[in-house]
Amino acid sequence: MQPKNYHVEILYLQNKLDKDMQKIIQPFNIFLTLFLSSIYKVKKNYIKPCAKNSQIIIFLIISSINLVDVCIASFTNKFKTFTLTFIICCSLFLLILSYMLLMICNIYFSNNLILLILKLQEIYDTLDINKEIRIFCIWNWILIFSVILFEVLLAILFQIATKFKISVNLINLHIVNVSYDINMLYAIRVMSLLTMLLERCVTMIQFDIDNEEDSKDKPENVFVTFKKILDAYELYNSCFRILVS
What is the pTM of this model? Predict the structure, then answer.
């Protein structure tokens, strides 16, 4: 079934994040911004999409720098064979295309992702999983540093194997690879968080059933939370279906 379109305007003043949710998304926000793939920004405990104009300008600057780098190399006869020239031009095309895809996804899905984060926060506030979240945040940092370290080692091995001279084009190629890997890790960790919340909610429902809970409000609240988790899964699908497909 085709997911609903959640691409709506988000009011800045309604997007306040608590400290726990900020800790969850902090490593991804920092490194995606560092690798020129920021989706949102958090300022004074409020989350909002990054400006579209700034993302387009960054894309144009990066593309221009890469084009100039290739042009300079071609005019100085650094490309000694047609095959090498063809490979460099293809890599440049793929690099610009990759950056363009990242930019389009970041712009188009930014509101959806913010809605998902706010929905996760709303669910988290109704469930007692503080201990699990602390461990979850630690693993976020460990995994993201592992991904970056892996990409650095891969880049070093690539340089050793190919003996290509380091260029702007090559550096940007590694940067875009890291950006895609971090986005993929982001998708995996959000799914892990959703699974954690769902398991906790199911446990609470099962506990109420087993103990024949007399309270009328508690079971109803748990089922409301369960419905919110299902909505969050649908939002997740709308945010990450292109990345993970």
Answer: 0.81
Q: Residue 10: what pLDDT?
A: 45
Residue pLDDT, tens place only, 88-129: 777 778 888 888 888 888 888 888 899 999 999 989 888 878
Identify any residues that bridge with 40 across adjacent strands, giving them in sequence order.
Answer: 49
CA-CA distance, 158 to 164, in Å (whole number)? 8
Token pair for 118: 């706010």
Domains of the chain: total: 1
- Residue range(s) defining the domain that contains residue 39: 12-244
Rg (CA), the chain: 22
Q: Is the dihedral of CA 41, 42, 44, 46 positive or negative?
A: positive
Residue 3 belongs to some domain of the structure: no
Of the candidates 147, 143, 243, 245, the one whose C-alpha atom is nearest the C-alpha of residue 193 is 143
- Rounded mean pLDDT of 131-151? 93
List helix spans (H) across the chain: 19-34, 52-75, 82-108, 110-124, 130-162, 168-210, 217-244
